[in-house]
Write a structure and sequence with these properties.
The longest helix has 28 residues. Helix 4 links the parallel strand 9 and strand 10. The N terminus and C terminus are likely disordered. The chain folds into two domains: about 325 residues, 3-Layer(aba) Sandwich (Rossmann fold); about 120 residues, no CATH class. It is built from 14 helices and 14 strands. The strands form three sheets. Strands 1, 2, 3, 4, 7, 8, 9, 10, 13 and 14 form a ten-stranded mixed β-sheet that branches. The chain is an alpha/beta fold.
């Protein structure tokens, strides 16, 4: 009987191996993806002027040094008619995640078409797109890139997509794409810009160094929207890292102000409330956090009072949190008495949880409001207007599992130094930083901290521009912020700043 069991087990094992071999063989039989390009002609009206342009939807297949296909990257490019490519700026744009496609910057702010967004909350179809009066196509050609596994971009059959899922791996693949696109479309001598949002800012900073070091491709400027370059500032605090708590206090103040949860004297003036909150965060609060258990008990009680004052939270809650409140708990606690939560991406939005006593919100109401309309509008737009016919799913946002941070070692990822290095060696390279006051995902004060700790040579500081908007992570869904951002970007693209030589040559 025992022998019979062994024989059955052996047959079962062999069957599994055979099935796996058949699957692998099938993978090898699948043809590699073909490169396709679909071009269509359009026009857009910006600032009262009609601009004719060509839209290019396509994919580029990346190969290794031996010519083996590794991945297919999908993109949408917009090229203005009638200008020499040598004179015309080009901006390579992407979003973050990791695991996000590029639709947010594409249909939210930069592209010639934008989604009509309902700021009041989730809405149902139809969504649609309209002429984007605030597009930057009047200033620059545009290329929207979907990293591997997002959008329509995929690893080729038989290749493990994880080889592209990491800080260095991601930068390598996007850098290769930009090199190939620039070669095929004659853009090596064009003024070149990078634009990223959220983790896309991490990518942009690291990519500027990679393009410089590997391809000797110099970048004229970088646009960082809702930036996160130094992950030590991010509010996912680990034991021993108190910095995120201080960086989040001003966003707590802004959020509490919006929902009318601050003391009357703070509610009177938004700008003044933020200024006082920032001073507290950098001063007494940071000092108190630094002291840890050595803090004087009376001083601790005073700090608890002031955290409650600037956050709109109850003193009891702040005390029970040991004067350290993370963003997720804040999003649940601020409006708990109203049985509401606030959004992480945009804390102006309110949500409803079935369990009002839980410690964390069930979902992000701002994400619920934003993601569906963008997904619906893009899937219709890419087929009906760009004529890209694709049955494969467009991955708007996808979980990539474990992202490879291996080179950071036992530390926080920080690509700010890469940005500083490139700003130093590429004379006149400019950086634009856009932040939303109501962003709990990448708080604006954390971005400020990073930018004021770059260690830039004083002669280079005029090349760093920082702007703020009364909205959240995707601040462009707010009409007034969208209008303001376009005005700020016109200044960024058209004003080269003071002429200086590289300081290392002086």
């Amino acid at each position: 009987m025992k022998k019979l069991y062994l024989i059955i087990a052996l047959i079962f094992t062999c069957s599994i191996v055979y099935a796996e071999e058949k699957i692998e063989a099938k993978k090898e039989l699948l043809p590699p993806p073909k490169e396709e390009v679909v071009e269509t002609s359009h026009s857009v009206t910006i600032d009262g002027k009609t601009i004719a342009y060509k839209a290019i939807a396509g994919n580029i297949v990346l190969k290794d040094d031996q010519g083996k296909e590794k991945a297919s990257i999908f993109y949408v490019a917009y090229i203005k008619d009638g200008e020499r490519s040598k004179d015309r700026p080009i901006t390579y744009s992407f979003n973050g995640g990791p695991g996000s496609s590029s639709i947010w910057l594409h249909l939210g702010v930069f592209g010639p078409q934008r989604i009509l967004f309902n700021e009041e909350g989730p809405s149902t179809p139809p969504y649609g797109t309209v002429n984007n009066d605030y597009s930057i196509l009047d200033l620059t050609d545009l290329v929207f890139i979907d990293p591997v596994s997002t959008g329509y971009s995929r690893a080729v059959p038989g290749e493990d997509a994880k080889q592209f899922h990491g800080v260095e791996e991601d930068v390598e693949s996007i850098g290769k794409f930009i090199r190939i696109f620039s070669s095929r479309y004659g853009r090596w001598d064009s003024p070149k810009y990078l634009a990223g949002e959220s983790y896309g800012t991490t990518r942009a900073a690291a990519l500027s160094e990679q393009l410089f070091d590997k391809h000797r491709m110099y970048i004229n400027g970088i646009i960082l929207i809702s930036s996160i370059l130094n992950f030590q500032t991010l509010n996912d605090p680990q034991n021993g890292n108190d910095l995120p708590y201080a960086m989040s206090i001003p966003t707590f103040t802004a959020t509490a102000w919006y929902h009318k949860k601050l003391a009357p004297e703070l509610q009177e003036d938004f700008a003044k409330a933020l200024k006082l909150s920032e001073e507290f965060a950098l001063g007494d609060y940071s000092l108190a956090l630094l002291q840890g258990d050595l803090i004087d008990p009376k001083k601790k009680e005073e700090i608890i009072d002031r955290v409650a004052y600037f956050s709109g939270l109850s003193r009891d809650f702040v005390s029970r949190s040991n004067m350290r409140v993370n963003n997720f708990r804040f999003a649940k606690e601020l409006l708990r008495s109203d049985r509401r939560t606030v959004g992480r991406f945009d804390s102006r939005f309110k949500g409803i949880d079935s369990d009002a006593a839980s410690s964390h919100a069930e979902s992000d109401p701002s994400a619920d409001a934003i993601f569906g309309p963008f997904a619906g509008a893009f899937n219709e737009y890419v087929r009906s207007q760009l004529n890209w016919k694709e049955d494969k799913e467009y991955n708007v946002l996808v979980s990539l599992g474990q992202w490879n941070y291996s080179k950071t070692g036992n530390s926080f990822l920080n690509v700010a130094e890469k940005l500083r290095e490139v700003m130093t060696v590429v004379p006149g390279m400019r950086v634009f930083v856009g932040s939303g006051y109501f962003d709990l995902a990448t708080p604006y004060f954390g971005s400020d901290y990073t930018m004021t700790h770059l260690g830039l040579d004083p002669s280079l500081r005029p090349y760093l521009t920082m702007k703020y908007y009364e909205a959240g992570h995707m601040m462009y869904i707010h009409p007034a912020s969208l209008k303001k951002m376009k005005k700020d970007l016109v200044e960024f693209y058209t004003n080269p700043g003071p002429k200086v030589r590289n300081p290392i040559l002086r």
